[in-house]
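Posting this for the archive.
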Amino acid sequence: MRNRESENNVNTKNINEILQRYAALERNFQNLSCSQAYLSGANLSNADFSHANLNGADLSQANLGGSKLVWTDLNRANLSKANLSMGNLSHASLLWANLNGAILTGANLSGSRLNYAKLAFVQLRETTATEVDLEGAILTCADLSKANLFKAIFKGTDSTHTNFDDAILNQSNWEGAILRSASLRRADLERAQLQEAILNEADLTQADLVSADLSYADLTQTILVEASLELAILINTDLSRANLEQASLFHANLEGAVLNGAVLRDTDLRHANFKNTQLEGVDFSGSRVKGALFNDVIGLTTQQKQWLKVNGALNICHIS
């Protein structure tokens, strides 16, 4: 009990010292050790907390705009509704941190670790977060539009209703992630890993998915209008009722995929692999199918078989 009281007294002294030094226009708080600090609502904009220990600190609704938090320990910290816009949080550790409703517009999160963090309704528009680790994080209804998330890790994240429009997401990892009803319009997802991801009813209009791996993903009712899926891997992917109008699936591998009710109007399907796919009710009108493989597919009408064969699709004679 005495040890805890002593620790609390020291902590209170440190907090008061921070606020007094800040009021005296000091901004350098590097290497500070102040875990569990209560700084809710404090104005600490443009302060430098690099390499500081703020583990478990309460910084909810604090103003940290323009602050430096490089290599800072913010594990389990409460930063809900805090202002971190234009801040530098590169290589910061925010494991299990609460950033619900926080504002990080234009911030730098490159190399940071936000595993299992709470980021619902967070503003991350135009942030730089290359190679950030967000595995297991909750990102529902967040705004990451125009963010640079090159090689970011989103494994197992929940990004339901999240906005990734115009974001740079090439070589990112989304294995097992939930992106239900998310918006990824014009997003760069080239060579992204999206195996077993849930993308049903997501909007990927004009998205770049060249060489992306979407094996076993759920893309039911997903919008992929004018999307680039050249060389994409869609093995055993569920594309039921998906809209791929004017998309490019040149040399894509769709073996075992389900495309029942999908829209493939004016789509480039040249040299795509449709082996063992389910194609009941698919609209192929206006598509380019030369060199596409249709071994052992299910659901095509006699009229569709004839049209595919006339237009250069291969192995139509094996269609049952």
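The helical segments are 2-23, 302-310. The CA atoms of residues 71 and 92 lie 4 Å apart.
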